[in-house]
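Quick one:
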Amino acid sequence: MKIRNSALAGIALAATAALGLTACGGGTTAGGTSPASDGAPSGEITVYNAQHESLTKEWVDAFTAETGIKVTMRQGSDTELSNQIIQEGQASPADVFLTENSPAMTQVENAGLFADVDKDTLAQVPAEFAPSTGKWTGIAARSTVLVYNKTKLTEDQLPKSMLDLAKPEWKGRWAASPSGADFQAIVSALLELKGESATEEWLKGMKENSKAYKGNSTAMKAVNAGEVDAALIYHYYYYGDQAKTGENSNNVTPFYFKNQDPGAFLSVSGGGVLKSSKNAAAAQEFLKFITGKKGQEVLKNGTSFEYAIGSDVPANDKLVPIKDLQAPKVDAAKLNSEKVTDLMTQAGLL
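Output:
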């Protein structure tokens, strides 16, 4: 009996100690969130990052400094990481997915893997920079431009529309990086704006007229060296190079098509929280932070030269203001990467 009583007493002490630990806040709530003493999200999250690593690191450092939440980044391309998330499904270790362009977000959304974005976060981003579904949100943007060699061309010699690049007079004179997610997003916008027939026709002309390079920076470098007259890329490659040495862009200047032309497409970078997140509260807090004032000021004041789109934060002073881009309106939720790659493959571009 003495042994039994001693054992029962030990069990009682252990139970009391466990209750004491829980009362002191040492427990973990469902979903893997360890709440801080003030009830705010804490713990750690994993971000699958297809955005520029240096930009997301600035966001992560500022977020961790403010919240104490640890963030682990896994780096990859838009398509690489969207496919990985879909393959992993509910077992994915990702809490948040960030992209450079929106088609990869739509791919994950169509697989049913995103949670709804918190309303407070959605309220920080104008509707024009978010999908109509509310399953993810815009976090930054980049404008399509035609960079041209100003020693070979003047602005009045440039095409009036991106569609004109398919005309015979542009044969062998312009470049692009068709294998990249950036260019495929531009084609996605063309498909949404002009339809399949017009897109097929333009891609045929592109196959005839353009020179393919691996990466936007390489295409711009080719323009700068006089290998081609112009290249269809995103704006920030030019501004980023100019902010450094300018060695790949000193002979180049960007041309904005404007007039709601497909070539004035403003691509939205996306952010979403996975349904399978083990720390959904912290993941939602991260998305809220990067679309909030402090997160968007990283874009305004940093060297990514991507457009701030949230919390009324203006663009970097060196950029053309968004309102002056005259970009066409495109619902980011409708951009279709799978259809685009099919069309580009049929045209012999991939």
